[in-house]
Design a protein that fits this description.
There is one protein chain. 45% of the residues lie in helices and 17% in strands. It is an alpha/beta fold. The protein has two domains: 217 residues, Spore Coat Polysaccharide Biosynthesis Protein SpsA, Chain A (Alpha-Beta Complex); 74 residues, no CATH class. It starts with a strand and ends in an 11-residue tail after the last helix.
């Protein structure tokens, strides 16, 4: 049996999938199996995988479109190896990615997973230097040292760790028990599950994953869904969180709820805005939450108009919108 399962969910990404698979086949660590989970059941994808004549590549067609989350989770549930990772069909691994992460996990049994830094690239693989600098500064990547981090939830809720750049011990997560209603924030849900009980993780301080940004990137097209899923993941993690991590989780829950409430108000959905605030309304008086709750009680046309004016004022004052699309969770 191989040491690592690489879960590769895909859906009609013929432009990028070959680059992703080529980066996998170029790994210095060769002891892996890749589950190419095709949500489109595409004959083109099947023929391409078969043309490579590599027994490590297992093509798994889905008889129907399971959706991004279920397609991915079914791949994780099928993993029977010691370690598991995910390679999206539009991302790429550097040649030493698996080697460095597996070495770290074997040397440090106290770590539930190993994670690396990411290099941000554009549709053609070009480096996105401005995006890279913004991500590095906003998430504090430069301050992360090589070594063990424990507890982890504070890092996770601030977007410092991405599942795209993580190799996990398969046994660290009860894959069958994961909640599908975390939607496109299921990456964060998986990492929070792996961090339960104060588990640690090893940081490999190198950029070993190339994360591609393009117009159809899931994190760019499904922001409200990701926020709703993030709320579910954070609520689920709070009861078992280490005492040290609770304030960070709670603050992230509040911020996510308020951001989603604003998004829904701008879209003219006051009912959805009120629903977003329910998890945090019981936490005491927070003026910002109260203001959003009041706006959510107004007729849709009124609340939408007020929010649009507030958004315009924010953009004029800061040169940006109050809600930026998230980095991959």
């Amino acid at each position: 049996m191989a040491a690592v399962t690489v879960v590769m969910p895909t859906y009609l990404r013929q432009e990028y999938l070959p680059r992703a698979i080529e980066s996998l086949l170029a790994q210095e660590f060769k002891d892996f199996t890749a589950l190419i989970c095709d949500n489109a059941n595409s004959e083109t994808t099947r023929r391409y995988v078969e043309s490579l004549h590599d027994d490590r590549l297992v093509y798994i067609p889905r008889e129907k479109n399971l959706g991004l989350v279920r397609n991915s989770l079914n791949g994780f549930e099928a993993a029977q190896t010691e370690f598991v990772t995910k390679l999206d069909d539009d991302d790429e691994f550097e040649p030493t990615y698996l080697k460095r992460c597996v070495e770290a996990l074997r040397a440090h049994p106290e770590a539930s997973f190993a994670f690396t830094d990411m290099r941000w690239i554009g549709p053609k693989g070009e480096p996105l230097d401005a995006v890279q600098q913004q991500q590095d500064e906003s998430h504090g990547f430069a301050q992360l040292h090589e070594g063990i981090y424990r507890p982890l939830n504070t890092l996770l809720v601030h977007g410092v760790v991405a599942l795209n750049a993580t190799v996990l011990r398969t046994s660290a997560v009860d894959w069958a028990a994961l909640r599908e209603d975390t939607e496109t924030a299921f990456d964060l849900h998986i990492l929070l599950e792996a961090a339960r009980g104060g588990a640690g993780a090893w940081h490999v301080a190198e950029r070993l994953v190339r994360y591609r940004v393009h117009p159809t990137t899931d994190s760019a097209t499904n922001y409200a869904r990701q926020l709703r899923g993030r709320l579910v993941a954070l609520e689920d993690a709070l009861p078992d969180a280490a005492a040290f991590d609770r304030p960070a989780l709670h603050a992230a829950l509040q911020q996510t709820a308020m951001t989603l409430a604003r998004v829904e108000l701008v879209k003219g959905h006051p009912g959805a805005s009120r629903a977003a605030l329910r998890p945090v309304l019981r936490d005491g008086v927070n003026p910002a939450i109260v203001r959003l709750a009041v706006l959510g009680a107004l007729p849709a046309r009124v609340s939408q108009g007020l929010m649009e004016r507030r958004e315009a004022q924010w953009q004029k004052r800061h040169g940006m919108g109050p809600v930026d699309p998230p980095r991959p969770s």
